[in-house]
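Recall the central idea of this unit: under ordinary conditions, the amino acid sequence of a chain determines the structure it adopts. In this exercise we apply that idea directly, starting from the sequence alone.
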Amino acid sequence: LPWQRAGDDSFQPFFALSNLCPKRDEVGPQTFQSQFIWSVPPAGAAIKGILLLFHGTGGSANAWFQAAPNMLFSSSAGQSYVLGALSSADRSSKQWSGVQRPDHNPDYQNVLSALAHLRQEGAIAVDTPVYLAGMSNGCGFVARLSQMLRVDTGRASAAQFMACCAASWGLSSQFIWPPTYLLAMENDELVPLSEARATFDYLQSTGV
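Accordingly, the structure predicted from this sequence is:
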């Protein structure tokens, strides 16, 4: 296991060069609680925002602190950003909820609980900028989450980062996009020109 105990509720990554010490909690209603792993930048660092991380199908919050490429990303971002990684509420398919209504989406409710937990811990303030990053299935959830945050709380994410995305995420062309970065990952495969074109046409239709 890539963790070693560093206290009752904290876990030090096995990577010797990392100065992050993530903590592990449970957030959300009792019926669909989610594992929540979070960390704060080193003492004295200026905090630029909070970066919420969402795994792909079959994954969990641990994914962002285990595999070497993900750990490199998290360790780097964690120098200036509070990090928060959730596990999807559905632990059978290990995918994120596609329900559009915020009050009916368990993963969205867990995100709100996670943000409230961080505010209670003094890690972030109410106006701390929120950034989102998703891998594969988590990428689709990031797009829906950004919209739900805008509609439900009146505050959109500051930016979102998407990796291994499909051509369409089931969103209306009326969706208001925050600054969006589409990332190529090492496990991305070469795709046919027609599929690449479909992705381009979809993004163009949304105004991106």
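The first strand starts at residue 3 and ends at 5.
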